[in-house]
Amino acid sequence: MKVDNVKSQMRKGMLEYCIMLLLHKEPAYASDIIQKLKEAQLIVVEGTLYPLLTRLKNDDLLSYEWVESTQGPPRKYYKLTESGETFLGELEISWKELKETVNHIANR
Predict the structure, then answer these.
(1) Which residues contact 53 (CB under 8 A, 6 or more apart)?
(2) Which domains occur in the chain, in start order?
(3) How confident is the model at residue 1 (pLDDT cuts 50, 70, 90)?
């Protein structure tokens, strides 16, 4: 197994959590989400992001609002729903537990 494959799978596993963390801070346009993820060294393409946003919306974790743009057509801004905020809280607990487990094993 190549290390790149493992790294890719780890990133995919964290992508949903990272998107929800970004949207917890403020509503965002898909291109803005991609840019912030790239800044954090989590490279994502539109072909990966849009299906994930759609799934999260269908699961009632996200909603969106159309906002008029001065540079073209209206933009769809995503934000967490109340259910999304609750789910994010559960993910934060899981992340903390996982991080503690890995740190415990790594430091033995």
Answers:
(1) 19, 30, 33, 62, 78
(2) 3-107 (1.10.10.10)
(3) low
